[in-house]
User: What shape does this take?
Amino acid sequence: MPSIEWIMADGVSFDLSPIVDLLVIGAGPTGMACAIEAQRAGFSAMMVDKGCLCNSLFHYPAHMTFFTTPELLEIGDLPFSSPNQKPTRNEALEYYRKVAEYYRLDVRQYETVESITGADGDFTVHTSDRFGRPSHLRARKLVIATGYYDLPNTCGIPGEDLPKVKHYYHEPHPFYGLDVLVIGGKNSAAIAALELWRHGARVTLVHRGAEMHRHVKYWILPDINNRIKNGEVKAHFQSTVTNISADDVTIATPDGSITIANQFVFALTGYHPDFPFIERLGVQLDANNDRCPVCDPATLESNVPGIYVAGVIVAGERTNEIFIENGRFHGKLIASDLTRKLRDHRDNLAVLTVVEPLVGHLRNQE
Ligand SMILES: Cc1cc2nc3c(=O)[nH]c(=O)nc-3n(C[C@H](O)[C@H](O)[C@H](O)COP(=O)(O)OP(=O)(O)OC[C@H]3O[C@@H](n4cnc5c(N)ncnc54)[C@H](O)[C@@H]3O)c2cc1C
Assistant: This one.
């Protein structure tokens, strides 16, 4: 969107770029629901995402099946039809694309929000594109719906920065016939270990817990436990990886330290929201409550007037508390508050945005 500036004779400039009622940072399922509900309430809305639409879902394992049934992933009251009891990643991407098309959602893909200036009613959102070119967008209200999947929890193991170490699992083929280590004991680790083994990798799993985590889904747990019992997937529980080198890994097990041959490592030990980014936007994090953003639970407006939080980030470090099933309702809460706060201005908002600062400036000239 071109920026339009009006420079007065005395050099003071006014940003006359078009302003949108609501700008949503993050075009995941929650961000989309926020934009849709704002539009349905009569406001203009735009989303900005540093990747593609639903970038996190796109980076989930290629053959992943959602844990949730289709209707619990629905947004904008658009039915999610699937022949499967649990939809696949590709079906979900297809559905969210169709939703974006149906609501003609304005989504700026491959634009990273770097910072914001301004205040409630007139924020300037500073972005950079894939080539690092800066740009800015104006909005009356903002939603931060930036998810948690972009930042992996690292383990702090020597060698963890080697290119053979991955914090994201995508698909099994490139690991056929190789020694692969999976670090973790929850769903992502179990799913990756099973798929890698089923596609011919020699899989070893290391978990500091005494057994696979109780949060592993009931239809996955017996499968991974049987593979381990049969020795098809080698597992070291109550164990940690102490070193990763080019050709092997060292594991501290209850029976002592062992070193095994290894070509690839999947450290699937969870992810976390971009807390420094959230704080950079002025939103406080509650250190006594798992770094949850400070906000009004009834409206999700943060401590910064005009800035709302939505989706998984609302629960801070507790990243398994809010997911699509419940995060999708955040949009309605925010849209109701927008209606309360912007209702009286809705009709002449466009005029006000230009005239008000100009009048203010001219008054100061007197
Ligand atoms: C393997 C796996 C399986 C899952 N299965 C289910 C399930 O079955 N059911 C369920 O309900 N949930 C499931 N979840 C959880 C669910 O996917 C997340 O909770 C959900 O994606 C969170 O939605 P969100 O919109 O809050 O964040 P996200 O979907 O993560 O979207 C955030 C967006 O913000 C963008 N972004 C971040 N920073 C910036 C920035 N600075 N500038 C611009 N854009 C930015 C990102 O690119 C991303 O697209 C699963 C998660 C995983 C990992």
Remarks:
- The chain has nine helices and 21 strands.
- The radius of gyration is 24 Å.
- The chain has a mean pLDDT of 93.
- The longest strand covers residues 134-144.
